[in-house]
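A.,

Following up on our hallway conversation. Structure tokens first:
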């Protein structure tokens, strides 16, 4: 716990001077001022994160936190837990949806086994198992508080290692059968919502399966009594190892001054929990898309953020955040290549009051 406290204490605000300089650069370009909206804002945000008004987030990693969830025993999913590790193996073999999308976005897939039921086989899988699957939250806590802290630090260390390997932007993603159940449980607790309000069909549940999912979350909250003011208590009692790992990625990105993209519902819940541990860490988080899961909008509202992409996506695995990179790249493309007012022989626009 002492090391986690040190990480949180070491998170500093982003660079206001670099942000101001980036805005001046935008205003020097021959186009309507602020005309590109979010595309301009995100470039300025990344400039502040790097402390450099000329950011180049060229080497990108899609970090997939993979873990299994004991609550699957309650019949809350369409498939069994074996799918978690199979998809991580598929990611190692470049077969998953996120892998295919990452090619176009110039990303490297980094599958991390933080809590699957067994070790990964493919050499691309980073086996960092805190425990082999969580407990069934409908019967007791997902993990101990100590295991939760260890999983968070595993996320921090993953970002540390990736920065040492030359990566300069992190995309969050997850893979874990049953993790929309744990995320919905966290959302119900954190946002004071009834489970049926924040619970969706995940990867394609029937109505009967959805009802089982809601009942499992109700029992989890009743049995575990999570404290909504304590992020670690919430995760350890009704969350998952993938959630804890992503929390660590957010804290690690802030500590090591890297931009980190929020994916969908599970990623947003993890971002909110990280923000509970360090409000300043939110300055390093970049929203990308609004998941179709019921509680996704709530999570973004509580983060105080708006996602630029509303495409009805709810696949997970970092796919929405990978799509967000296309917007960021267009913003950077304009930032570096559009002519200035002088270069285009046009009188400069000015900000009007």
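Then the amino acids I'd put at each of the 353 positions:
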């Amino acid at each position: 716990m002492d090391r986690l406290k040190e990480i949180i204490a070491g998170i500093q605000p982003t660079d206001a001077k670099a942000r101001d300089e980036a805005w001046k650069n935008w205003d020097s370009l021959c186009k309507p001022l602020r005309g590109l909206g979010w595309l301009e804002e995100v470039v300025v945000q990344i400039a502040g994160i790097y402390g450099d008004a000329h950011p180049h987030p060229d080497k990108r990693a899609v970090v997939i936190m993979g873990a299994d969830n004991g609550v699957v025993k309650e019949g809350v999913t369409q498939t069994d837990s074996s799918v978690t590790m199979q998809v991580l193996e598929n990611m190692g073999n470049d077969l998953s949806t996120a892998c295919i999308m990452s090619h176009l976005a110039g990303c490297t897939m980094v599958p991390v086994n933080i809590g699957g039921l067994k070790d990964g086989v493919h050499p691309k899988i980073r086996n960092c198992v805190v425990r082999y699957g969580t407990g069934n939250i409908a019967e007791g806590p997902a993990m101990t508080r100590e295991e939760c802290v260890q999983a968070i630090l595993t996320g921090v260390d993953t970002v540390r290692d990736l920065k040492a390997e030359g990566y300069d932007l992190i995309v969050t993603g997850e893979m874990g059968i049953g993790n929309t159940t744990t995320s919905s449980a966290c959302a119900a607790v954190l946002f004071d919502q009834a489970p049926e309000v924040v619970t969706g069909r995940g990867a394609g549940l029937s109505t009967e399966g959805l009802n089982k999912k809601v009942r499992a979350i109700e029992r989890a909250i009743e049995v575990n009594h999570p404290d909504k003011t304590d992020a670690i208590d919430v995760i350890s009692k009704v969350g998952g190892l993938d959630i804890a790992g992503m929390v660590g990625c957010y804290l690690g990105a802030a500590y090591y001054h890297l931009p980190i993209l929020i994916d969908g519902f599970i990623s947003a819940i993890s971002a909110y929990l990280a923000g509970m541990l360090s409000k300043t860490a939110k300055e390093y988080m970049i929203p990308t898309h609004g998941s179709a899961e019921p509680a996704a909008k709530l999570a973004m509202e509580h983060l105080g953020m708006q996602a630029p992409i509303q495409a009805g996506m709810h696949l997970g695995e970092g796919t929405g955040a990978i799509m967000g990179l296309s917007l960021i790249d267009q913003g950077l493309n304009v930032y570096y290549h559009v002519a200035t007012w002088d270069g285009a022989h046009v009188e400069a626009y000015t900000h009007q009051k």
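The mean pLDDT is 96. Curious whether your intuition agrees with the design.

B.
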